[in-house]
């Protein structure tokens, strides 16, 4: 009887250890993704990414005066680029992407990242990025660098239709649209320069394949322009009519995905399922925004402590800031990957319905 009891106890111990190990494996999935490729480069230094050109960009960014939030955003963008490029390498080995469409898109995405963070060799004429702490510094009446947006915003703000909380939500949507305009301009500039290079260089892509890649670039631009027009129309309607009681979401990126889903000819069941997934995604977006705010505050506090010169306090605040920066990057990557997955899912489901 004692042997049986001891045997059962040992079994339970093993089960608990196995469950804890499983939970640890799941919890450490991102950390493993982050750390497994921190290998030594040729000079013996630890590298951040598994692709050399991404490390070069990151090393350059470390020397630039990027704000903490922007620095964190760059890391997330490079992580997404890394994931996509490694997936493409597997596709290539399997003989997929014969016409070079995916490769051209990856190159374009990389050029967009360089332009977005002022690393493309061109003088960046954009104003410094706005964030939660800097909104009050903006000149009143001209905050979106776009006459149509500024006019619409000023009209909405003086209409008396919006509470202070609703005005903050509306401002976030306007800011999101401004960012989308900037992304479109970067993509258009990147495509123009790529086409100039195509004209002057003998490309391995000839005939139909080359034509297909160029066509795909213009398709991307047209789609982004359609998205911009639909986004502006939504802002115009929102500014005139105000928020409705049945507004499903608050975050601009989530609203954009939901609007795309409603246009994608999905069934009621698919829309209900997607709505639930978007609610989870919105929580993730809001949590990431909160961490970005905390990171900015932590950075200000660190600078303040450094000015006082107390080494113990500096060390303590630096450790806190580093932990927060790592967490913000991790959440940024997860959020962008989730957004990418949702966008692909909506496009794919819409395509399947249109083919039926």
TrEMBL record:
Residues 13-124 form the Alpha-2-macroglobulin receptor-associated protein domain. Pfam families: Alpha-2-MRAP_C, Alpha-2-MRAP_N. Keywords: Coiled coil, Signal. Residues 1-27 form the signal peptide. Residues 218-284 form a coiled coil. GO terms for biological process: negative regulation of receptor internalization; negative regulation of very-low-density lipoprotein particle clearance. This is Low density lipoprotein receptor-related protein associated protein 1. It comes from Dicentrarchus labrax.
């Amino acid at each position: 009887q004692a042997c049986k009891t001891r045997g059962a106890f040992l079994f339970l111990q093993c089960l608990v250890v196995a469950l804890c190990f499983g939970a640890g494996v799941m919890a450490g999935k991102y950390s493993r993704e982050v750390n497994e490729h921190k290998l030594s480069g040729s000079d013996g230094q630890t590298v951040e990414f598994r692709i050399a050109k991404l490390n070069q960009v990151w090393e350059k960014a470390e020397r630039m005066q990027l704000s903490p939030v922007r620095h964190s955003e760059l890391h997330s963008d490079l992580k997404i680029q890394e994931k996509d490029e490694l997936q493409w390498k597997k596709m290539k080995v399997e003989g997929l992407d014969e016409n070079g469409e995916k490769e051209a898109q990856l190159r374009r995405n990389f050029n967009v990242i360089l332009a977005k963070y002022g690393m493309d060799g061109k003088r960046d004429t954009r104003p410094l990025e706005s964030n939660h702490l800097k909104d009050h510094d903006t000149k009143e009446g001209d905050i979106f660098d776009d006459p149509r947006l500024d006019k619409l915003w000023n009209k909405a703000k003086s209409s008396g239709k919006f509470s202070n909380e609703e005005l903050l939500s509306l401002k976030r949507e306007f800011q999101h649209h401004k960012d989308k305009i900037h992304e479109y301009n970067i993509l258009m500039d990147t495509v123009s320069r790529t086409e100039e290079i195509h004209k002057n260089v003998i490309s391995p892509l000839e005939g139909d394949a080359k034509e297909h890649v160029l066509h795909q670039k213009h398709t991307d631009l047209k789609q982004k322009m359609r998205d911009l027009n639909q986004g502006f129309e939504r802002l115009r309607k929102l500014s005139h009519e105000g928020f409705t009681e049945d507004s499903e979401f608050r975050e601009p990126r989530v609203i954009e995905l939901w609007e795309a889903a409603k246009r994608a000819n999905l069934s009621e069941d698919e829309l209900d399922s997607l709505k639930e997934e978007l609610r989870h995604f919105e929580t993730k977006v809001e949590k990431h925004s909160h961490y970005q705010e905390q990171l900015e505050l932590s950075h200000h506090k660190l600078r303040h402590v450094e000015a006082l010169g107390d080494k113990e306090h500096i060390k303590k605040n630096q450790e806190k800031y580093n932990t927060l920066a790592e967490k913000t990057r991790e959440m940024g990557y997860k959020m962008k990957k989730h957004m990418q997955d949702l966008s692909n899912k909506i496009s794919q489901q819409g395509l399947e319905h249109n083919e039926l």
